[in-house]
């Protein structure tokens, strides 16, 4: 109940006034059944404008820090993110990452829409960054369609690092569902997973018009040149590899 109250009464009208959202390709979102909405990530506002324009409820995986605060503020944050459809996940190590994927699989198993950000974190400068393979692993294991979503202008309405919101124009552009059934039986192969997530990022690049950067966004945010474990799986310098319709050998 609270989800719909926030969407249509408490927050939705204000968000619509601030961002005047324009929606393209909404017909690609299925009216029922599970699917992964794979979105670029420019600002916190992405997690508000995407549910605002989709008729069905969307569940996002949210970092556990949103649910662990103390005092009145901590209680309110836990309550708000819970009623807003967020599911807490621990991203501290490999075991936690697998637990997060297990949680995501349960959400999809219930026939729900799952919102994911394949870059793993917000873009530090508005460009599109290398995707993490967790989304690919989930898509290959479950066989559900992946719908690419480009969020455009949310970083203008809700500038990163600022608590102020501004008037602007937000565009939410959905692409055609992506079917990876040609990779059936290859779940768990890290090269196939890299190929799948690169294909998703390629679609996001076309939908959003963003410049692609072949490093993880977290690498730039860390500022120390470190790269997550997937560094060895890099393909290409300028754009993600475009995978043909048949599995590569």
TrEMBL record:
Q: Which residues form the Phospholipid/glycerol acyltransferase domain?
A: 35-154
Tell me where on the tree of life, at the top rank, the source sits: Bacteria
Region ranges (Disordered): 221-249
Transmembrane portions of the chain: none
Q: Which GO terms describe its molecular function?
A: 1-acylglycerol-3-phosphate O-acyltransferase activity
Which N-terminal stretch is annotated as signal sequence? none
Q: Which InterPro entries does the protein's record reference? A: Plipid/glycerol_acylTrfase (IPR002123)
Q: Where is the sequence biased in composition, kind Basic and acidic residues?
A: 228-240
Q: Which GO terms describe its biological process?
A: phosphatidic acid biosynthetic process
Keywords assigned: Acyltransferase, Transferase
Could you give one GO CC term from the UniProt record? plasma membrane
The name of this protein is 1-acylglycerol-3-phosphate O-acyltransferase
List the source organism.
Mycobacterium cookii
């Amino acid at each position: 109940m609270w989800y719909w109250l926030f969407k249509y009464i408490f927050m939705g009208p204000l968000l619509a006034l601030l961002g005047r959202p324009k929606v393209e390709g909404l017909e690609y979102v299925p009216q029922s059944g599970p699917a992964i909405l794979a979105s670029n990530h420019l600002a916190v506002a992405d997690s508000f404008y995407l549910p605002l324009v989709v008729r069905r409820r969307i569940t996002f995986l949210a970092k556990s820090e949103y649910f662990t605060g103390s005092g009145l503020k901590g209680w309110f944050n836990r309550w708000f993110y819970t009623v807003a459809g967020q599911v807490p996940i621990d991203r501290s190590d490999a075991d936690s990452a697998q637990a997060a994927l297990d949680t995501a699989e349960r959400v999809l198993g219930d026939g729900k829409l799952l919102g994911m950000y394949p870059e793993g974190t917000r873009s530090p400068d508005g460009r599109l960054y290398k995707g993490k393979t967790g989304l690919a692993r989930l898509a290959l294991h479950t066989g559900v369609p992946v719908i690419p979503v480009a969020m455009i202008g949310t970083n203008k309405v809700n500038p990163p690092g600022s608590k102020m919101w501004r008037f602007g124009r937000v565009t939410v552009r959905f692409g055609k569902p992506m079917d990876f059934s040609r990779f059936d039986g290859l779940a768990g192969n890290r090269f196939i997973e890299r190929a799948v997530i690169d294909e998703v990022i390629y679609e996001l690049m076309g939908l959003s018009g963003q410049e692609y950067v072949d490093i993880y966004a977290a690498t730039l945010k860390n500022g120390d040149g470190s790269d997550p474990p997937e560094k060895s799986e890099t393909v290409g310098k300028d754009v993600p590899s475009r995978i043909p319709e048949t599995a590569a050998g």
